[in-house]
Amino acid sequence: MIKLDIENKILIPFMILIALSIGVLGLISYWNGYRLLLDHQRQQQMMTMMEVMYHLESVELKDEADKREVAGYLAGYHRQGLYVFDEAEVWVDHLPKGSGTITPMAVVGKINRDLIRGFYEDDGLMITYARDAGSGWTVAVAGEKKLFAGELVDAQKYSILVAIISLILSMQATILIAHHLSRPVRYLAEQCNEMSAGDLETQLEMDRTDEIGMLAESFNQMIHRLQENARKLLEAKQFNEDVLRSLTTGVLVMGQEGTVLNQNEAAVRLLDPALKELESGKPFMALLRAKLTGLLETPGRFDQVYVLQAGPSDDKRYYATSAAPLINSGGDMTGAIFSFADISERKRLEMRMERVNRMAYVGQLASGLAHEIRNPLAGMKTSIQVLKRRLVCSEDDRNGPLFDNVVHEIDRMNKLVSELLDFAKPHKPDLRRLSLEPVIERTLSLVAPAAEARRVRLVFEPVGAPVEIIADENQTEQILLNVITNAINASSEEDTIKLRVMSHQGMGMDPGSGSGAGTGTGKVEVEVADSGRIAESARVYVVVEDEGSGIAASDLERVFDPFFTTHATGTGLGLSVVQKLMTDMGAEIELISEAGVGTTVTLNFPVAQKEALG
């Protein structure tokens, strides 16, 4: 289908209208001329007939000779179409020769003999006739209409030429008018196309006061409003993008088929493909799509905390997740909006506070029990020793070992009570600038006999430059002693315990999130990081790594609980005391372990700065 532009839409109807008008006027003129020519021909025929009848009436036809004389006279008229005849003979025949329409037979056949005077007309003929009573002659004047049409065309050829010239001039005028009318409309259409292509700086420049000018002014006002609205929309869009980009909470929009329609930067950062739910092992995105299916079936909203893990040796991550249906303006659900935040730090803090509260409660309980138990134990030990001196007379007496066993158990119980008191009793740390190397060396000298007895190797390289922390010296030594002793107790023959001192920048792993797997080399090493890095860091990390039996994953969350132990002879207070002392000094402890591989304990101390205590 041909698509016309505005100029042709204006031009073609005008040209058709003008052509029809001129054509109609020409036809009317031609028809009027034709009718006038016919009327003139009738008058001519009537005059010819009247002239012949007047002549016949003025003469007396007595015999045949008179008739011939009159006939000769009439033949001299040379009137086209004159035909005079009677019942016996044709006296004058001026009918056109060779015409198939006007023939003597046709003329005679059209005349009504009952009329003295008459007129006959059809589509091809026009005959005027009269009958002379004196001579018995019938005078007829006939004419062929098609001959009149040719005469009419020849007569009106100048009128036709004027009509054609007028038509051409009218067409040219129409073209000029159509171009003048369509030019501003076409200009307006071009500007609209530019605007639809995104150019909102378009302005119509028209110096007109008519309707087109008003339209241009309205168009410019509309463009100005569009520019303002577009600017506001862009600002709102940019603001929304800034908000989504600044959010630490991940926001993800998912369609009905589970495709991700949009997500902010936090969502991209949090959606690690390796993250899987700890309980089911399903990827986090699969869990979200499952929630989408549930929302499509039962619209509503849900809130849930997922426990996730990227790998067996990685820390648990807790994602607080919320979901709500995505509703369009028509009220139909087109997908779901998910928001999720990593609350792992908050969870760890909550668990730490829970552990502190539990330890405080246990400490209060242990303090009361220790005072109530310690005094009877002292009396029992004294009494057993007195009984031993009285009843055991010789070294071979079989009762001696029994008394010794009782005293040993009393001493063990007393040691447990002492540990309970140490755990329960508040220790305000004496924080000062502390050189870490002497403390490590002193602690290693204390545990060396136990390591040698178990054939566990201790390797220590002195620190190249002083490494100073802010801590309590006695408590730091107690912490290192407990941690290394636990590592020795968990190690087998030819195993190694690694002790590394480093800043966060120099660590080969992120404390608390690295692998707890051992190296399997069967030795204990002490490594110290570059002192320049330590000086630049705000924290110092002491990492103790063994290659022992490790701790089962189900027991990791309980290792700092009071009275929890995996050793038959342990009290379960060692790591609880260590954690409490670290917390009191503003330090932190992290433990990573894998059963059958080993355990890594990271002690995080604040580094001593120039303005620190000392």
Automatic annotation (TrEMBL):
Residues 301-355 form the PAC domain. It comes from the Bacteria. The chain crosses the membrane at residues 12-31, 158-178. Coiled coil: none annotated. It is found in: Membrane. Its main location: membrane. InterPro entries: BphY/WalK/GraS-like (IPR050351), HAMP_dom (IPR003660), HATPase_C_sf (IPR036890), HATPase_dom (IPR003594), His_kinase_dom (IPR005467), HisK_dim/P_dom (IPR003661), HisK_dim/P_sf (IPR036097), PAS-assoc_C (IPR000700). Signal peptide: none annotated. GO terms for biological process: osmosensory signaling via phosphorelay pathway. One of its GO terms (cellular component) is membrane. Its EC number is 2.7.13.3. GO terms for molecular function: ATP binding; phosphorelay response regulator activity; phosphorelay sensor kinase activity; protein kinase activator activity. This is histidine kinase. Keywords: ATP-binding, Kinase, Membrane, Nucleotide-binding, Phosphoprotein, Transferase, Transmembrane, Transmembrane helix, Two-component regulatory system. Gene3D superfamilies: 1.10.287.130, 6.10.340.10, Histidine kinase-like ATPase, C-terminal domain, PAS domain. PROSITE patterns: HAMP, HIS_KIN, PAC. It catalyses: ATP + protein L-histidine = ADP + protein N-phospho-L-histidine. Residues 368-609 form the Histidine kinase domain. Residues 179-231 form the HAMP domain. It is an enzyme of class 2 (transferase). SMART domains: HAMP (SM00304), HATPase_c (SM00387), HisKA (SM00388). It holds the Pfam family HisKA.
